Backbone:
């Protein structure tokens, strides 16, 4: 009878914080070498959101540089996160893994016609020479409206898992799920989908230093940005019947020493940066005067962005917060890199149908000091504060003592409380509770895959005015 030990190493939610990647690969290579020297088998997985277009390399190379980094490290499989899934166009995602040396294990993303993408497999069975078989499946978080706008269908992850696990359970000695759902959903998964032994988690950026056991299933998640690496040891002991019994000896997430770095990874990153720089040098416009941004008062650059947003979305009125612009544009040439530095967020435009009553409420709320200084985290926002809110095609009568419908004009006409208006804004206001009147709208349309910086490039390519 034989015994086998399998070392699971895993990463999640790097979010293209590529400056940390050489430290991550240093740890992974050392752990892999040590495990192999002890005659252990090693499986290495990434659980999604490795790509994030906040980084210029990911932006310029549409994520393909990230795949080269994963290839170089010898990953055995990955699943996708929402950053791969809904910040790339359908064509870009369809070709993201063209050169991947590993399978993309994903069971709940399909084309609108019901077929599975050619670049995914719902599960992968890893068979060892001893006869041990390990089944690995994967799921990603469901954002139906975003995926549908891009031309995909994302299905309920638990429904997909039940189907896949049922197929695997008779074929393998252990089942692992690569889950980009978040910790609460992983805990729910244990109770709704029987038969999963280990869940490698992501999305909510939890650090589980000793893992978390729920019933008979172990869950692990290794933080964000390459600051931790997950490490799990599986032991398989052959029974007299020829089957293998699984025991899990330890589950941990290990802090990465960011000062110890792998030289080979550093060199590859340098090559990728040069390729990205060539692309991002593309000129967009030449400004005869600067476009300034001030977060706490009216300024020209946010005013231009609000105007651009309304034009792109063909809306009645638009609103955008000054804090989405991280720096001004100086006089002279403007490149794609400049626009990326100004507006690195993976934020899409959106149209929201909203009543005049609700629009008045939104306008009131936006003027509050607490909103202007609000330090937003999440929803794709990569800035520091929301900042001054800018509206386009909405004017205010200055001599009124009380702000009401008689004070606001849209397109030169007084605001009507009972009339519906199309408001162009940023998608993050539709996702949370910053502006309930917006997020509760029953009619929201997203414009994808364009980000705000893409709209600015479109506008600036025909920009003739020297100052604003």
Residues:
């Amino acid at each position: 009878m034989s015994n086998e030990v399998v070392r699971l190493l895993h990463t999640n939610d790097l979010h293209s914080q590529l400056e940390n990647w050489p430290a991550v690969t240093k740890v992974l290579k050392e752990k892999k070498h040590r495990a192999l020297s002890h005659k252990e088998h090693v499986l290495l997985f990434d659980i999604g959101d490795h790509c994030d277009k906040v980084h210029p390399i990911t932006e310029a190379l549409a994520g393909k540089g990230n795949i080269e980094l994963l290839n170089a490290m010898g990953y055995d499989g990955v699943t996708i996160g929402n950053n791969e899934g809904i910040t790339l166009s359908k064509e870009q995602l369809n070709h993201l893994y063209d050169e991947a040396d590993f399978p993309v294990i994903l069971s709940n993303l399909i084309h609108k016609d019901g077929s599975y993408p050619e670049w995914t497999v719902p599960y992968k069975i890893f068979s060892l020479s001893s006869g041990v078989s390990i089944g690995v499946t994967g799921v990603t978080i469901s954002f139906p409206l975003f995926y549908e706008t891009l031309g995909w269908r994302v299905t309920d992850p638990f429904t997909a898992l039940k189907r896949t696990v049922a197929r695997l359970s008779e074929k393998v000695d252990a089942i692992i799920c690569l889950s980009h759902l978040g910790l609460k959903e992983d805990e729910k998964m244990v109770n709704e989908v029987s038969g999963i032994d280990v869940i490698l988690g992501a999305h909510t950026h939890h650090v589980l230093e000793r893992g978390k056991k729920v019933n008979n299933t172990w869950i692990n998640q290794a933080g964000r940005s390459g600051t931790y690496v997950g490490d799990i040891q599986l032991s398989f002991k052959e029974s007299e019947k020829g089957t293998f019994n699984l025991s899990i000896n330890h589950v941990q997430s290990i802090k990465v020493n960011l000062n110890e770095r792998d030289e080979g990874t550093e060199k590859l990153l340098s090559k990728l940066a040069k390729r990205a720089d060539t692309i991002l040098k593309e000129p967009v416009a030449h400004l005869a005067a600067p476009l300034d941004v001030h977060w706490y008062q009216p300024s020209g650059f946010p005013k231009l962005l609000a105007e651009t947003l309304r034009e792109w979305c063909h809306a009645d009125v638009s609103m955008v917060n000054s804090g989405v612009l991280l720096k001004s544009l100086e006089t002279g040439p403007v490149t794609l890199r400049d626009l990326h530095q100004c507006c690195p967020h993976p934020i899409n435009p959106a149209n929201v149908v909203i009543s005049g009553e609700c629009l008045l409420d939104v306008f009131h709320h936006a003027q509050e000091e607490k909103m202007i200084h609000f330090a937003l985290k999440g929803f794709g926002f990569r800035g520091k504060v929301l900042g001054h809110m800018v509206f386009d095609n909405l004017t205010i009568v200055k001599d009124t003592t009380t702000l009401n419908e008689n004070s606001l004009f849209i397109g030169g006409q007084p605001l009507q409380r009972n009339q519906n208006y199309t408001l162009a804004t940023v998608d993050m206001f539709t996702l949370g509770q910053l502006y309930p009147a917006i997020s509760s709208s029953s009619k929201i349309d997203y414009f994808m895959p364009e980000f705000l910086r893409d709209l600015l490039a479109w506008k600036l390519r025909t920009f003739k005015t020297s100052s604003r």
Remarks:
- The first helix runs from residue 21 to 37.
- DSSP finds 16 helices and 25 strands in the chain.
- The radius of gyration is 25 Å.
